[in-house]
Design brief:
This is N-acyltransferase YncA. InterPro entries: Acyl_CoA_acyltransferase, GNAT_dom. This protein is an alpha+beta fold and 169 residues long. The chain is globular. It has four helices and seven strands.
Length: 169
């Protein structure tokens, strides 16, 4: 397996991994699939986006971008990770996340956030194993497939212990 920065040539493969998740699951609250232009924009704009390749085929990606807009949030990032079904359970997600965390940490990011669907307990368990802590469960903030969905917010502090100066987390 190779993990590398995403390139424009990866847009088709990223869309092929992401769009079925959008179309068929509540893992993503997005109501519509992303076009190739939208995926290319993601590649161009995200401060960090990486793909995992197995035998020359992209089988997943992970990215991060600012948690919320505005200068006050410039060091808090939210990440996304999507794996093709055949890539799950082989350590690929863990490897992608390690690359994302290292990249974000080197860029001075303080906290990395995950917004996990309440209908994705595997996603919560995955993040828990990586050292993310559940900070809040936001009830009924998403709406997809004609039903309300909860969102679990999970956070991982990336800087050295003691560098965190506020809050109880």
């Amino acid at each position: 397996m190779i993990v590398r920065p995403a390139e424009m040539r990866d847009a088709d493969a990223i869309a092929a991994a992401l769009n079925p998740v959008i179309r068929n699951t509540t893992i993503s609250f997005k109501p519509y699939e992303l076009s190739l232009d939208e995926v290319r924009e993601l590649i161009a704009m995200a401060p960090g986006i990486f793909v995992a390749e197995v035998d020359g085929k992209v089988v997943g990606y992970a990215s991060y971008d600012q948690f919320r807009r505005g200068a006050g949030y410039a060091r808090s990032m939210e990440h996304s990770i999507i794996l093709a079904p055949e890539a799950r359970g082989h350590g690929i997600g863990r490897t992608l996340m390690a690359v994302v965390e290292d990249h974000a940490r080197a860029a001075g990011v303080g906290s990395l956030w995950a917004g996990v669907s309440g209908e994705n307990p595997g996603g919560v368990a995955f993040h828990d194993r990586l050292g993310f802590e559940t900070v809040a469960v936001l009830p009924k903030v998403g709406f997809k497939f004609n039903r309300w969905l909860d969102l679990t917010l999970m956070r991982k502090w990336l800087q050295p212990a003691g560098d965190e100066t506020s809050g109880s987390h």
